[in-house]
Amino acid sequence: MVEAQQTLDTRTAILNATERLLADYGYKKMTMEDVAVEAGLGRRTIYLHFRTKKQLALAVIDRIIDHLLAELRKIAASQTAPAARLHQMLVRRIMFLFDRERDIRHTLDDVYKALLPKYKTYREKYIRLEVELFAQVLREGEDLGQLDITDPVEVGNALVMATNSLTPFSLNVHHRGQRKHVERKIRLIADMLIYGLAPKQPNSR
Q1: What residue ranges define each of the domains in the chain, with the CATH number in brackets?
Q2: What distance in Å separates the CA atoms of residue 192 and residue 90, rounded to the nearest whole number?
Q3: How far apart are CA 146 and CA 140, in angstroms?
Q4: CA–CA separation, 106 vs 111, rounded Å?
Q5: What is the largest CA-CA distance in the chain?
Q6: Which of 29, 82, 152, 174 lies 20 to 30 Å from 53, alpha-carbon distance?
Q7: What mean pLDDT, rounded, does the chain reach?
Q8: How far apart, in Å, are the Cα atoms of 11 and each of 50, 67, 115?
Q9: What angle do CA 128, 134, 135 make, to 5 degrees?
């Protein structure tokens, strides 16, 4: 138990150090030696946990997405109406990633580029996990008669794809703009997407 906790603590220290270095210097300039120094560990210890710089960078991205998914799960499990939850999830997925990267000198954009095509496989996995969460709430809304959909997974995928243009994966640091502008855009998009799922009311004569 103690050994397992020490291993976890060491891994966390390595990932924390890597995130700081990626923010300050970017992926290309960062070395495994830099990570060891930043984490206060021997280089051999770094290689015991991560064999390559690419593997280490992917682990950092994994952890970021894990944190995002945890926040989306909390919203999905809340007691508010399904449409309100879906709206909140769409806004949160964009603002979480925006807030992560807005104050750092180097974004993870260069990491994504350097890791292609490997990252493409990882990205598909992340999207699938997000879609499953949206589909879960969509099914609930459908069962309650509050949402008009035929395929929760297909609609969940559409919701994610429709908002991806505002993620750091799609916008570079110069195009993201101020936080209030990004939030306004995602709220407008979420309004159009979610309210379009409401059951159609019959025309009254």
Answers
A1: 1-51 (1.10.10.60), 52-195 (1.10.357.10)
A2: 12
A3: 9
A4: 10
A5: 78
A6: 174
A7: 85
A8: 9, 16, 21
A9: 85
Closest-CA residue to 161 (of 182, 183, 131): 131
For residue 8, what are its two tokens?
């976890």
Residues 6, 77: Cα–Cα separation, whole Å: 32
> For residues 25 and 107, is the Cβ–Cβ distance under 8 A?
no
Reported as a pLDDT band with limits 50, 70 and 90, residue 175 is low
Note the pLDDT of residue 91. 95
**Per-residue pLDDT at 205 exceeds 70:** no
- The pLDDT of residue 74 is 97
Q: Read off the pLDDT of residues 81-126 as tens digits, 9 standing for 90 and up.
A: 999 999 999 999 999 988 877 655 555 667 777 777 777 787 888 8
Q: Are 60 and 38 in contact (CB under 8 A)?
A: no
List C-alpha distances in Å: 23 to 116, 127, 192: 19, 24, 34
